[in-house]
Amino acid sequence: MRAGLERVSIQFCPVREEEQLTVEKTILDVPKMYADHHVERVRDALLALDGVKEVVASSAFKRVLVTFDPKQATADGVKQTLAKAGYAAGEEWKLPELPSLTDDDSPWFRSTQRVTRTNMLDLEMSGDFRKW
Q1: pLDDT tens, 17-29?
Q2: Is-contact 85 55, C-beta < 8 A?
Q3: What is the CATH number of the domain that holds 25?
Q4: How far is it, in rounded angstroms, from Cα 24 to Cα 47?
């Protein structure tokens, strides 16, 4: 044996079938999750739910993989938790309607002529001839 190394023995205890943990996985599309701060909010909301074991969220793919214990949580409960956090599965952003392109006599549609006059002092102070 090398110096500093110890031999460690590991014993595995058999687990009875009724004690084995069964988990379910569900994948949800979450279009509103487009940045890392959204991923953090989704993960925090889902991990606070009893029975959720693991949450893998991607803002690039806008998907969430949730691993949960079916005895404590359900897929519908996961969806409801997402909806309460503001990231309902499959819900797209609602964009505001564009304004109509009608001439309503606002400044946007008004064309005016603008004439400016250069101050000669500004010209004298510009470039290499600055006088402070």
Answers
A1: 554 568 899 999 9
A2: no
A3: 3.30.70.100
A4: 15
